[in-house]
Amino acid sequence: MKKFDVRRKRLSPVLKKILLVMKLTTFILMISMLHVSATVYSQATKLSLNLREVTIKEVLQEIESMSKFRFIYQNEEVDLNKKINASFKNEVIENILNKIFEGENIDYSITATSLILIKPDLKTGRSRQWRDNETYQPKMISGSVTDSGGQPLPGVTVVVKGTTQGTVTNSDGEYSLPNVSGNDVLVFSFVGMVTEEFSCPEGNVLNVTLQPDDLQVEEVVVTALGLKRQEKSLGYGVSKVGEEEISSASGASVLNSIQGKVAGLEMNSSQGGLGSSNRVVLRGNSSITGNNQPLYIVDGVPINNSTIEESVGVWDRKDFGSSAMDINPDDIESITVLKGPNAAALYGSRAQNGAIVITTKSKGAKDGIGVEFSTTNMFDMITEQSLPKFQNQYGQGRYVNNVATYDLINGSTSWGPKMEGQTFESWSGFQDNLKYAPHPDNVKDFFETGLRTTNTLSFSKSGANGFTRVSYTNLYAKGTLPNNDQNRHNLFIKSQVDLAQWLRLDAKANFITQRIDGGTWLGEATSNTIYGLFMLPRNVDLNELKKFNYQKTPNDPFTGTQMNPYWTTDYDELINKKNRFLGYAKLDFDISSKFSGFVRAGTDYSNHIVEERYNRGHKQLSTGRWIMNQYNTIETNLDALFTYSQRFVDLSMNANIGGNIRYEYSDKSFNQGDEVINEGFWNVQSFLTKSASYNYYKKQVNSLYGTINLGYRDYLYFDASFRNDWSSTLPKDNRSYFYPAFSLAFLANELINTEKINLLKLRLGYAKVGNDTDPYRLATTFGINPLINHNGIPLMDVAEIPGVRDLKPELTTSIESGVELKAFQNRLLLDFNYYWQSTENQILETPVSPATGYKAKLINAGEVRNSGIEIALGGVPVRGNGLEWETTFTFAKNTTEIVELSEGIENQVLSNLENLAGGIQIVAETGKNGYGKIFGKPLKVNGQYQLTTQNTFRTGVDPVELGNFNPDAVIGWLNNFSYKRFSLKFLVSGKIGGDILNATKAELSDAGVTKNTLDYREGGIVVEGVDSQGNPITANMNAQNYWAGLADYGEPWVVDATNISLKEASLAYTFKMSPNAFIRSVRFSVNAYNLLFLYRDKEARDIDPNQTWGVGNGQGYSLYNMPSASSYGFALNVKF
């Protein structure tokens, strides 16, 4: 049960443990950095092999898999198909190679981390590097190596054929190779590219373009538990977004970098100002009342992605951001999206909705010391496309009868007469008279030009024994709302060091501190700046609003619940502060070539303080109020994994077994003061009335899991995994739950003798995942309620929902199949996926009789099924002459079916908006497409308007289904054009189908401020319909009554949410640098984000259908959301 205590707590034992973990992690990192100095790797490394009847090539591959050695050779010069026996124990590499090539007349040369094998000159018995000086005329050859699109290729090996003499291109793709004779041949080789040979040029410059070797499909992706796997061996669908795509997306958070690029991913953004949350859903909503967002993993360690939303009912809500947005995009190397239970089952219950796996950068682009600086500067602007369409003909006032007689009265509506420059009493009291004239830009001019500037400086050091990377990032942002600012500091340290031949230490520490001032509440909250701004009568001048001490007059425009928007930005202070630590320490051990493993401890700790300051004079809190909520959250993961690998002639096997202990702790302290005594001193002692509370929860999940991966002749792969969880939040008899997963991948291209098909993979998977519940739901709880007291002493009250002792875990079963094709040298790419999944034993709240003293009870019931397809179609339509066009189109369609709820219940309310548009409910209802239905009052019944004899619309109409907030399909189209050193990218993303309640337009139409209300202003309208008995009736309405009547119905405001937008665009240029220059690389780009809508339904052109109202399950409506901004700016990256 939840614990409440009004006393202030000292630092808890849990927080002391957190501080200890942070200190230990920092100490380990410092020790790691001291050990990064290079040693002679070949002498320090001892290997053990036990291979029989294998080729020399297989032996070399085994050595590469268990060490840092890499082999460079020419197939025609080195016979690698000879079969040998290789049995060695703790031998250095020189001894192993001498034995392998015994009698083969092979010479080799060893560098710190690689080998170059050559065949001696048969005539002299010596390698060519020892030829007589008479035929050797040395000179320096330099140049650059690029890909087919003209982009530089770093890390290309350049070798004089037949010798050990060579070099590697730098980060700008440039090289210099001394002592090359006129008769030499240079060999250029790079992973994923066709190896090319060129004769020594007559001059000193040789520029080379390498073409992709599309027969190589060995791309590696990070899968569950941080395990790296060859993508071709996976029997389930994954999507990967690389560093370049992440850096080119100049959105407000790292999540913006994957929007529109991953089939099956839907993202909406909350709009409460800087730092607001994003809602991400993979393959539809599977839980009715639980969390539907994926699990986030950073460097193999799960992190907390909770969202803090302060709310008082459905109307007063503030979004203080989700935790995944704290991750710095400049520190990310790649993002892998595991879309469903098949891919993410090993992560356990929280991954039933998939997982987003983030891998951070490790070392620099070269060995030794590297320095990198990057800056991104974006300007945010509110444009007309995101604002309501306001009318500018009629001002403040109302109708006084049905024949268009107007009155200038006290009120916030714009139903007065035409604005023709008449004079009227100033509503502010500062002037005797004002001109009754329109102010067409009184909304747009309120917003400011926002700024987001991000500066990152990183240092890296790499050597034979490890690496260290340290980066510091500062993000400063000024929002489009006045006094809305964000400042975030991010210190990132990551290090890896070889402690011994068989032992490696890997550690990371990420310190984040952030402060956000300002922002806005959501909905019809009095302090919602947008609510007060949009409702302004069309004759109100912004300059008058800035004079806060205006007097009350008969023409006061703020007679409703809204406030002067300048007051909410200047005198309602929202302060959002966060300190966070993410870190881990990991020991990897390689006992032998077959046995390896790791042990790891990771933690995610955050201290989050949300402070609200309401000055004296607030419309609802006239005597002032101060609120401080402080949240401490900690998640600690202790895990271990042991791996056994074995390769036979036709069969490869990899088995893992491991376990995890996950501990979660969270507490919240609440302090509130009312009736200010000492203005300007924001603490509880400055207020007459005080209240406080404290609550916390703890949770632990213990897990065991294992996998086995089998490969047959490199064309058939079978994976099996299991996991068993024991959750502290479930009753003893149901605490343990087991779930398996299986997948199969078949590479048909290995059996097809054609060069046109590079990869043709068929895959099939099955998985089952369990999910527990929140803490303290097994027993009925009591707590101290500061809002009720006896003689000033707070009383305890009972929870609204009684405990349930027989709760069971939710269970999700998933089946997935797909086809992946790469053809015509990767000029054509296709990835198709079909999935079906069912989530049973939903943990639901069902209403009970008020006579019980409770609001609802918990039950296990219901089944939700999701099925759909995902398609990624792409390729390279143009490649040649330095020009390349790479394109990818993604399409995903999901259908959600509510198979059943609890007995006797046909729907579950996700969001109840009883005072909006006559009463709106967002529900989950049994049947196909039953999740996310929008119910409200229809405008017509049986084709007839429902009227009264008082010339108004009848309100007593039963609600019906008006739409569904889920889109029919989600699409994305990513394009990348490159020409020599230029690159141009753009992303188009969109949603097809789905509906949204444009509640903003309904409210503004009631107030008469939007263009649509110009209809019927002069003369009114005659509406024909029926009365409550079905008898024909006619109603004569003026415009004000007509639009006010429509605003009380849901049907006119539920609109098509289909939209297609130009989401990203970037034009970049990479400067050519001298190979020996101090500056190794310079890249400059101009970027734009959220540019414009290419298509929106005409009834939704005053809102952004991609915005959400918080991150919960009750989506599908827009109510005074912060207008979305378009961003334009530039970025600069310099490497030294």
From TrEMBL:
Main location: membrane
One Gene Ontology CC term in the entry: cell outer membrane
Sequence ranges assigned to domain TonB-dependent receptor plug in this UniProt record: 235-355
The keyword Signal is assigned to this record: no
Secretin/TonB short N-terminal domain location: 70-119
Membrane topology, as annotated: Multi-pass membrane protein
Keywords of this entry: Cell outer membrane, Membrane, Transmembrane, Transmembrane beta strand, Transport
Subcellular location: Cell outer membrane
PROSITE patterns: TONB_DEPENDENT_REC_3
The keyword Transmembrane belongs to this UniProt entry's keyword annotation: yes
InterPro entries: Beta-barrel_TonB_sf, CarboxyPept-like_regulatory, Plug_dom, Plug_dom_sf, Secretin/TonB_short_N, TonB-dep_OMP_SusC/RagA, TonB-dep_OMP_SusC/RagA_CS, TonB-dep_rcpt-like
Family as reported in the entry's similarity comment: Belongs to the TonB-dependent receptor family.
Protein known as: SusC/RagA family TonB-linked outer membrane protein
Organism name: Mariniphaga sediminis
